[in-house]
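Justification of resources, computational component.

The compute hours requested in this renewal are based largely on the per-chain cost of generating structure records like the one below. Each record pairs the submitted sequence with a full structure-token output. That output is archived, and it is also reused by downstream analysis tasks.
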Amino acid sequence: MSLAAIYRALRPELDDPDLDARLDAMCAAADAALERPCDRDALVRALAALSEPPARWTEAGAGELAIALACAAGDERAVRRFESLYLVNVPQMLAHMKLSESTLDEVVQRVREKLLVGAPPRIVEYAGLGRLPGLIKVTAVRTALTLVRDARRDVHDETAVLELPAEHDPELAFLAHAYRGAFREAFASAVAELDPRERNLLRLHFLDRVTLDRLATMYAVHRATIVRQLAAARAKLAERTEAALRARLHIRPDELASVMDLIRSRMDASVDRLLESVDHLD
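The structure output for this chain reads:
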């Protein structure tokens, strides 16, 4: 059975008049990525598992997919290829975090385990779409943040958003002090209600100081889209926090509004420390 016939049998609804030529190009790209002939049957079946139609395949994606499939099959040469093409860039990705050499080594090891261990390995879920560099960047940053956070957990004040100097507004300072515990619980609950993408965007932008342009590149969207998504995530976080506070507290609406005005006014300055205090972030 030809490669095109295998694909058509699996995805007849995505048939393409140029399918044979596209499959030849994808196989050639896979061979180049692996630096040896790929498993063509496995590659075609993996391409058929993608939601993208043949017209949206890319050679970069096919190369990533071939490496991922070979790694998942336990091919040591493919693992070394993955390390030399992708994992080797992790220290540079995290250079701005000024981590120690031992911490960087630990990050690389954990990223390797997260992506290559499992049945099937997580790398296979993301490969084929030209997203491996972005996936590795996100995984490395999250892993590094976890290590750093664990190392200094005892020095973080998760209620920084409510630290308003008393001399500026004694009434708000009183409210902040009185409802600090309730806010901590409400914020954690609100974070848990965000979807993984929203949490990741907030975490990367506020904790790791990833720029809007870089986030747009990582997620393959326009910068304006990232701006809108971050704004929506912040608004959702404030709204869910307010709802959780309302459920926990029995105070006058004007008092709750004052606390929420304070929270919103200091959200940009303090969301990083608040996010670092929430243990269950993905």
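The chain has two domains: 3-149, 155-276. Residues 155-276 form one domain.
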